[in-house]
Amino acid sequence: MAPRRRVLSFSLASLLWFLAGCNDSSSDGETHRGVPLPDAAGQSPGSASEAGVASGTGGARSNGMGGAGGSSGTGGTSGIGDNSGTGGSSGTGGASGTGGNSGTGGNAGIGGAFDGGSLLDASRSADAARADARVGAPPAPSDAGPSSLLVPTQGALLGAFVGTGTFDQLETLLGRKLAIQHNFFGWSDDYMVSVRSDLAAARIPLITWEAWTNGVGTPLDDIISGAQDTLIITRAQSAKAIGQRFFLRWGHEMNGNWYPWSGFQNGADTTANAKFIAAYRHIHDVFTAIGASNVLWVFCPNVDSVPGDAWNNWTNYYPGDAYVDWMGFDGYNWGTSQVGSTWQSFTTIADRIYASIAAKGKPIIIAETASAEVGGDKAAFVAAILPALKTSYPGVKALVWFDMNKETDWRVDSSPASAASFVSMANDAYMNP
After folding, report:
1. 398 half-sphere exposure, CB direction, 13 A CA radius
2. pTM attached to this predicted model
3. 298 bridge partner residues
């Protein structure tokens, strides 16, 4: 049973008055840093994360050394966090969160559009795309069904975050346009600039919105209490004005210990789960109240919970079906690039979380994945992805590669063999729905 909606703590008239006075926040271009803390056993997964880089270039990640995350299925936290004080008045959106006002999308044929389930070719001009809206436009945000969630009718969408080089360079290497462009932003960054740019290039934006500024976390209590509402409302208004769908991933890897919004850094017990859920719902409810129904919400834990205590299992952070459009997970093969890390195959990584994620019955996006070169055969790692998706993970409808030479060389072309393997995968019909 889906948890009940939050009830707005102020009238609609008050909300409209408040919205009229909201001003946009400028991007502060801060640098972020994720520092993992020792787990419950006192072991520091120092190899499990890396210093974040400037806004838009990615945050910390886990090396998956934390174990399987303890017992699952507790999930008793649903329906908590009623002090969030927002949302509710919209009360629509259902499980997909895409219901509500349509009214937008006059530019529906521009980037990120689907025509018969296929992404429009990025080489087409904006004017031509607008003309195409008459014959093959993506559905308006109020439409129900998989197409309104950008779920391909077959196969899986392929995307990337590019932190070394440029997105265009990666596409040139692959010989194709990618469907999804992933970028990371700090709490006060105006990520809508990136959304517009990605859509104009006929790519679906995947925005990871991180609740910190210059390495300092935005307290979840401030989000829950409404102290951050001016900024949240501004972002929601801008998202609504876009009128086209894009993925928004807030509070990712909450079951790790390296981010300030994680459960570990907010009490390390079930009260931490409740606080995260309340903050997530509050942000979602504000967007819903504003009418930003074109935003697709991605709930994305790490493949392993760090620490692996029962309270920290990802299921205890789940905000409810009405608050999630796509399920996601992050998982990396660190090879032997870090002290204590070992080579892991793609299936070894995905098997640790796929079944429980797929049980939610929602489309799945692997929002971050990549492989090191050291410790094994990266080309073989990449080559195994496609057959695994086809046979073992049918619920995965999108996969996004982390393409950056950072704590290790995650790039597609870290070696000629890796590049060749990735090009083969990227040009398979399954990855071009």
Report:
1. 30
2. 0.72
3. 326
